[in-house]
Amino acid sequence: MLTTAQVLAENNFGDTRTGGLAGPMGLFLIVALATVTVLLIRNMNARLRRLPDRFPQQGEPGRVDSAVVDPTDGAVEQDSPTSAPNGPQQRRNS
């Protein structure tokens, strides 16, 4: 009796005239992928149909929501001095 590992280890993918599996295995994979794609499209269409036509406004344009926080906390970054190197630079000792 053959085990699963022995069946998978056999080189039966079309290099001999008898018992080639490349055609049937390829057909199975194509049919499986097509089926999964159709089911995914149907699921996403059902989800899109459940969405409302328009979403309610999040807030008035001039109003700041309390959930929005200023990450800088009002601090203004100062410009760096011109003598400071910008980027990765190496000093040369001469």
Describe the structure.
The chain is mainly alpha-helical and 94 residues long. The chain is 37% helix and 0% strand. The mean pLDDT is 75.
What structural category characterises the helix and strand content? mainly alpha
Low-confidence stretches: none
Order of helices and strands: HH
What is the count of β-strands?
0
Helix % is 25-40%
- Sheet with most strands: none
User: Kindly, what is the distance between the CA atoms of the first and last residues, rounded to a whole number of angstroms?
Assistant: 80 Å
Number of helices: 2
Q: What fraction of residues sit in β-strands?
A: under 5%
Task: Itemize the secondary structure elements and their pairings.
Elements: H1 4-9, H2 22-50
Descriptive key words:
94 residues; mainly alpha; 2 helices
In short:
With 94 residues, the protein is mainly α. 37% of the residues lie in helices and 0% in strands. The chain has two helices and no strands.
